[in-house]
Design a protein that fits this description.
11% of the residues lie in helices and 38% in strands. Strand 7 and strand 8 form a beta hairpin.
């Protein structure tokens, strides 16, 4: 799964041909957690818009606002919660790193993953809009796939990262066979990782020190999320 990520350099995100008129000011984020608002680029008909969506996709037909933070690439076409969004409502979710946890018994050491040059990238996402009790919630989920070689020793899943040249296709293409080919592990050779503080387990902590390298320590038993 992908349960936390960063956008520590929002100023480096490119918004070419994207309407951002309704987007509030963006600040560095070091511990983006489920249920929080995340930056997303969505396509509405012929227009692209930068918006804040709640992380945790709530299907439009759901009776209550319970969301899914991730959608598995292998089953996204079959699961009722995700299939329509996969067909019609795909989005890009900008990030510049994400966290994953290596478990050892009851202990889980967090690791931070990013590009070797620390550049921003985009997760493949889907979105939907839920209406209920007089409220409207636009929400999203990050698609995950099998882990690449870098992540495999830490976790068996990773978020789908789209190359810049694939992002237009992800938003525009309506052919499932073409979209499926994009949902592959990102090359491990272009990424790097290191252990980080257990403080990332706490969503209220959103500080630059969370991404700093630490020595792995599986001798303590912190809580996860």
């Amino acid at each position: 799964m992908c349960g936390r990520f960063t956008l520590k350099s929002p100023g480096r995100v490119k918004f070419d041909h994207v309407d951002r008129s309704n987007l509030p000011s963006l600040f560095p984020r070091y511990n983006i957690a489920p249920s929080q608002n995340v930056l997303a680029i969505v396509q509405r008909c012929a227009d692209r818009e930068a918006a804040l969506l709640q992380w945790g996709l709530i299907p439009s037909w759901s009776k209550e606002p319970k969301g899914f933070i991730n959608a598995r690439a292998e089953t996204i076409e079959d699961k009722p919660s995700f299939s329509e969004s996969f067909q019609r409502r795909r989005c890009l979710i900008p990030a510049d790193g994400f966290y994953e946890w290596q478990r050892s018994g009851k202990v889980a050491q967090p690791y931070y993953f990013q590009m070797k040059d620390e550049s921003p990238f985009a997760f493949a996402g889907i979105w939907d809009e839920w209406l209920g009790d007089g409220n409207s919630i636009a929400s999203c989920a990050i698609i995950t796939t099998r882990a690449n070689e870098l992540l495999a020793s830490i976790h068996d899943r990773m978020p789908v990262i789209l190359r810049p040249e694939s992002q237009d296709q992800w938003l525009d293409d309506s052919e499932p066979v073409n979209l499926r080919s994009l949902l592959a592990p990102f090359p491990a050779s272009e990424m790097t990782s290191h252990a980080v503080s257990y403080d990332v387990n706490y969503p209220k902590i959103d500080n630059e020190y969370l991404v700093r390298r630490v020595e792995p320590n599986l001798g303590v038993t912190p809580s996860l999320f």
